[in-house]
Amino acid sequence: MLDVIRKAPEGNVFPTKADLHTPEITASHVKEMARYLGADLVGIAKLDADDAGHPFAVVCAVRADNDPREAPGIGGQVPVQDGLFVTFVLGAWIRELGYRASTAASLDAARLAVAAKLGTLDRTGKLLTAEYGTRVHVADVIRTDLPLVPA
Predict the structure, then answer these.
(1) Could you give the CA distance from residue 137 to residue 61 in angstroms, rounded to a whole number?
(2) In terms of residue numbers, what domain contains 12?
(3) Is residue 150 part of a domain?
(4) Contact 41/86 with Cβ under 8 angstroms?
(5) pTM of the model
(6) Rounded Cα–Cα distance for residues 140 and 21 (Å)
(7) How many domains does the chain have?
């Protein structure tokens, strides 16, 4: 199931950009939408310039009772599925607004989660949050050119 979601085509960017509020308000709307879709934690980080010109990363995390890397069964993989659902739909919503949005599993999601102020890294390199400790899964990161502010 995870491969099916990851390999699904992202879709086209709507040709007309939506009229947006300020980047601060837009960032707030993105976070609200991610939480509505099931993310427990959401942050925005500034990206170093990438080849495609995506200046921002939207980082979503979901609570995970088990570490998906250590629990390969369905119970351990539910947070991964939940995270993929959130990022897939959120990326589609951003593209409907007329901006580019691509998910990236290869980015260092935990490092970007720290940059987005979702928590810190523990000694093993896992995200440590105030709300859930290390019991979180950081979903694939959405790279976008939607005007946002890091927070």
Answers:
(1) 5
(2) 2-144
(3) no
(4) no
(5) 0.89
(6) 26
(7) 1
